[in-house]
Amino acid sequence: MSSLLKSSSYILAVMERGQIAEVVKAMKEHEQVEEGALLIGRFDLLVRVAHYDRSDLYRTISQIRSMPGIRATSTHIPFEGFTKEYTVNENDALAISLLRSESSLSNVLMQLRNLRHVVEAHIIPGDWDVLAILHSDRVEQILETAVNQFEGVQGITKTETLLAHQYFRRTQDATVSVGTFIPQYAFDKLRDKTVLGIQQGPA
After folding, report:
1. Would you list the DSSP string of 104-165?
2. Rg (CA), the chain
3. Which pTM was predicted?
4. Domain boundaries along the sequence of the chain
5. Can you count the helices (H) and strands (E) in the chain?
6. Whole-angstrom Cα distance, residue 126 to residue 15?
7. Distance in angstroms (rounded) separating the CA atoms of residues 122 and 80
8. Could you count the other beta carbons within 10 Å of the beta carbon of residue 6?
9. Which CATH number fits domain 80-164: 3.40.50.300, 2.40.50.140, 3.30.70.920, 3.40.630.10?
10. pLDDT value at residue 74
11. Which parts of the chain sit beneath pLDDT 50?
């Protein structure tokens, strides 16, 4: 009898303001959630979930969608892609880019693999064609990749990049949470400054 292979999929979520801390706490406790990031942009949260088959994934999606504080979700199942070795540390820069292409997606993946700060890229079904993760110890390099280097990738016609301001990952011993770097002016524009269960007070 063949053993089941574990796969991963990505869920983007929009959260209710004022309930971000509760949602993140629930995500960190969910056994299928391997890592996640709080985002600035159209979506508030990205989580990577583990699953063995479609029914296992559907069960996890249903549980996440029913969490208090979750307004909407968008699930992306990778068909093909790559993941480089990387670790997100305190004050690193992290971003998620959604890409649309008019040409061969395999060719787009090959070009993205050559970009130093693109650490993951996966072909996904739906409104977008590729989900990419950008990582660096400097936010300027993330912005250079998202704004300038993506323009040099043949086939890409549209991009949307979401900067992360908090990140967490599950380890064998605990869940590690770190703050990622974004310019302070972006925080100033946040309506809800709750991050990973800690309510930020006045500066």
Report:
1. -HHHHHHHHHTSTTEEEEEE--SS-SEEEEEEESSHHHHHHHHHTGGGGSTTEEEEEEEEEE
2. 17
3. 0.84
4. 80-164
5. 5, 12
6. 21
7. 6
8. 11
9. 3.30.70.920
10. 95
11. 1-3, 184-203
